[in-house]
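for the recovery benchmark. tokens below, seq after
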């Protein structure tokens, strides 16, 4: 009888410890995965920030680049120039 009680006590202790620690373990794993995802997003944002910083420097220091951007994105023209915009053809349905 003593051996049976010890076995039941050990199994009960294992079950109790499992009930206590398994949810916490799963939560830690979930938070670690979320952390990795957020670190990836941070890295992507850093790369975008670097590209924007480089473009900002070009706009401040390179007048030819600034002119090119103004022409392409804003449709700016020099005095006497005429800007033509070619619209894409619409397909007949």
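predicted aa per position
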């Amino acid at each position: 009888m003593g051996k049976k009680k010890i076995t039941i006590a050990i199994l009960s202790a294992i079950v109790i410890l499992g009930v206590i620690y398994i949810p916490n373990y799963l939560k830690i794993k979930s938070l670690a995965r979320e952390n990795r995802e957020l670190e990836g997003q941070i890295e992507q944002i850093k790369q975008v920030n670097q590209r924007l910083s480089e473009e900002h420097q070009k706009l401040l220091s390179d007048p030819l680049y600034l002119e090119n951007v103004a022409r392409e994105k804003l449709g700016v023209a020099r005095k006497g120039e005429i800007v033509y915009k070619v619209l894409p053809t619409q397909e007949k349905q």
